[in-house]
Every structure is written in C-alpha cells, then in structure tokens.
Amino acid sequence: MDPVQWRLLPLLVLLASFIFYFYVHNSSKLPHTDCSLLRHSHYFLTSKRIVTRQGIISGAVEVKNGYIVAIIKGEDFHENSKADQILDYKEAVLMPGLIDVHAHLDDPGRTDWEGFPSGTKAAAAGGVTTLIDMPLNSFPSTVSAQTLRLKIEAAANNIYVDVGFWGGLVPENAFNRSSLEALLNAGALGLKSFMCPSGINDFPMTNASHIKEGLAVLAKYRRPLLVHAEIQQDSGIYSEDGADNPRSYSTYLKTRPPSWEEAAISELLTVSKDTRTGASAEGAHLHIVHLSDAGSSLQLLRSAKNDGDSVTVETCPHYLAFSAEEIQDGDTRFKCAPPIRDVANKEMLWKALLDGDIDMLSSDHSPTVPELKLLSEGDFLRAWGGISSLQFILPVTWSYGRNYGATFEQLAMWWSERPAKLAGQELKGAIAVGKHADIAIWEPSVEFEINDDLPVYVKHPSISAYFGSKLSGKVLATFVRGNLVYKEGKHAPAACGAPILAR
C-alpha cells in the first residue's frame, strides 16, 4: 500500500463507520420491502381504545421488527420519538387481529371459486390477520403430506395475511397411522372431518370409529380434530313428489333438522371421553364447527365439558345475524349447512355465546362461482351451500352483537384469543408484549352499506348474503407481523403473508 493510501485509510474507516451508524440508527425509516404500506419497521400506534387482556386502555403500542415490544398507558406515553414514527388513531379501536379458523380458500384447483390472493385480500380488508384454511373445496383435498405440499406451494407469495392449514381425516387415512402422522409432520395444524356427505368427492364422510382413530394419533401431537357434526337421517318430512317448493327456504330447512346435529354430537361424545385427563387420547381435542342448533346439541356439549371432555364449539356470524323467517323465496345466497334456523334459535345462540357455552366464532367462508348458487332459479335443494362473508365478519359481529351487550373484549376473545389457542398459535391472539404485531384498527360507529359503490374484495360479491346490508364498524387498517397490509381501501403491493406450519 502506498503512502497516499495509508493516509486515506483512517478517513475511509471513519466514513464506513458513519455509514454503518447512519444505517442502523435510521433503519426504521427505510422502506423494508413492498410488504407494507408503512415505511417504518419501528413505530408507535396510539389510541384511546386499545383492547388488551387487562382491559381497554388509552396509550400506545410499540412495534419493532414485526413484534409488539411495549404497551404504554397514556399517562406514561411521552412522544419521545420523531412524529413520523407515531400513528395516532385517536378514538378508533385497536384490537388483536382476527383469527378465522374456518375458511375455504379453494386453492389450488378451484381458484375460480376463490383463491389465496383474493381470499387473503378480503381477510386483510376485514381486519383478519390469520386464516386457517380448510382441507376441502380445493382440489385435490388436503388428506396427505403430498397434498398439503401442494397447498403450501400454492400459497407461496400469494397470501396477504398469515395462513395455516387443517388436514383432512377421511376413511382412506383414518386407520393408516403412518399416513396421518406424515400429514401432521408436514405441518397440518390439526385435522377436519365430516359426519355427513361433504359434497366433495375426494372428501368422504367419517363415523365414530374413524374419529376415535384420529383422536388417538392427534393425542401424540396435542392438536385438535374439527368435526362437521351432522348425521344424515331419513326424517320423512320432505316430499320428493314436488309438494314442497324448492324455492322456499322452509323446504330446505326441513331437510336438515336439528336432530341431525344432535345425532352427530351424541355419537361424537361416545369417543370424546377419550380426551379426558388420564384417558387414552389425552392431549387430543375435539372441536365442533359451525354449531347451528342451540337446543339439544348445545345441552350435550355443556354436559361433556362438565364431565371433563376436551371439547370446544364455534358458531358463525350468519347464524347470529339472520333467521329463517326473513329469508326470501329463491334467495340461495343464504343456503348453508347446517342451515340458518328460526329467530328463537338465534336468540338462544346469542345467549350461549355471551354465557360462554359457545367458545368462539368463525366465518365458514365457503364461496363458489355464481352459477353454482343458482341465483336465477332459486332452487335451495340444488344450489351450492355456503356463505361468502370473509371481509365482513368483524362489522357483522359488532353490528348485531352490540344489541346484546357484546363488548370489545368479548370480540377479541371470540375472534382472536380462543382461535389462537385452538390453532396452537402462541404468538398470536392478543395485544401483548412478545406477540406478533397482528392488529386490526376499526371505527365502531362508522356505518356503511354493502353495495356496488363499496369496494368488495371477495371474488364474487353477488353471492354474499350480506350484500345490500347496512353495517357498523369500518376497518381502517390491518397490520400483519408489523406490516401495514391494508389501509382504507388500499392493499400492500406485495403478498408477504407467512404460511403457518405446525412443528
């Protein structure tokens, strides 16, 4: 090295040190990727209504590199950071992002029905930060390690929120322990089965024997089994000779009476006792999806919980928002299984939810192409069943729930805390230090109509039962792992949600 280079060396070192210091010191001001509409990775969110496990506080949530690093009460929060690092949401509610444990995104194989990009954009627009995707309605169904890998590949770079996956329990794999273990080892968060025909050819129904075997395997992994609890029975109350009008919702309602749910749950509870402390399947957990019957079925579940069975139950916003009496002839947007029941049943569901007998909520978002809903024919018996709802579950729950005295803390429990526990997601489900910065910000008092003037991010808005409704609770912003993925009608440029795999 010549003398000139030696003289320049200290200056070069000093310059390098300055660049390094400047970069590190100001890293929170650099655009980290196209994953976020926000340029910072270190910032404060302030509000007078932050929903925490200790109650609602006024103050700030400090976010750094995707995690919540501090929660500061208002009287302790001093604006000691630069102004462009503070996002003040004033009176808006900050709550943990919603976790929807029951969504059909139909990807791969039926992306004309929904798909990961459109479904997760809808989720983000609705304050949902985590989806757990069901193993059927996509093609092929997720019933093996190989088919789960197809899901993971389809999700890569195509999801705007975090997405996990349930695997399927079907007769083909129920008695094949190595096949089920391979599926769980590949990252399935748990298993799902049907006790009646699912409507999907490669996802046949199971019985109590299959479910018993599934619980035995799940015990080792301490993961849940989710069950569609209806058993098809010959009720003898539907006339095949045309006497019943297929355009009438009451005709469809007769074909799936509450006794179907009661029969399935009765059978399930003969094996759920295996999940008790000290029993053969201790560590496994049974979860009843989309409960519709608030009568005998719910009584059976109360008794099982009291006896020590490891069992939980969810219901859905459409069972809490609608009643059979208000569904018009031919309006097949409202067809789902189990069906929406009468107004008295709806009132009992609300009471059960508020009393804690129903543990959590899910969307059961189950879209399809409009042609399969037979909207022009209005035939409830032939139309595809499923409520398309993903973007609106928060405002729907709030709009109806506030009339029953539902609180922000209860919304967080039903939509965040308990779903996180079911899915085994310890870093999600609450605004707490050390958790992922998954946060929904919304205005409870702002009303809006779901019509052609409102940006609707679900793929086929015309099939949503909520189209034409007026709701309260507008989502302003959605953060996923600290990334601002949605803000007042705009999504982040890149789909940077993370696939969630059990380990």
From TrEMBL:
Pathway assignment: Nitrogen metabolism; (S)-allantoin degradation; allantoate from (S)-allantoin: step 1/1
Family (UniProt): Belongs to the metallo-dependent hydrolases superfamily. Allantoinase family.
GO cellular component: cytoplasm
One MF annotation (Gene Ontology) recorded for this entry: cobalt ion binding
Domain Allantoinase composite: 38-92
Gene Ontology BP, a term: allantoin catabolic process
Reaction it catalyzes: (S)-allantoin + H2O = allantoate + H(+)
Keyword annotations from UniProtKB, A to Z: Hydrolase, Membrane, Metal-binding, Transmembrane, Transmembrane helix, Zinc
Protein name: allantoinase
Name of the top EC class for this enzyme: hydrolase
Species whose genome carries this gene: Erythroxylum novogranatense
Pfam family of the protein (one): Amidohydro_1
Keyword Disulfide bond among UniProt keywords: no
Amidohydrolase-related domain: residues covered: 93-485
InterPro entries hit by this protein: Allantoinase (IPR017593), ALN_composite (IPR056854), Amidohydro-rel (IPR006680), DHOase/Allantoinase_Hydrolase (IPR050138), Metal-dep_hydrolase_composite (IPR011059), Metal_Hydrolase (IPR032466)
Quaternary structure annotation from Swiss-Prot or TrEMBL: Homotetramer.
Task performed by this protein: Catalyzes the conversion of allantoin (5-ureidohydantoin) to allantoate by hydrolytic cleavage of the five-member hydantoin ring. Catalyzes the first step of the ureide allantoin degradation followed by the sequential activity of AAH, UGLYAH and UAH which allows a complete purine breakdown without the intermediate generation of urea.
Cofactors named for this entry: Zn(2+)
Parts of the chain that traverse the membrane: 6-24
EC number: 3.5.2.5
Keyword Zinc among record annotations: yes
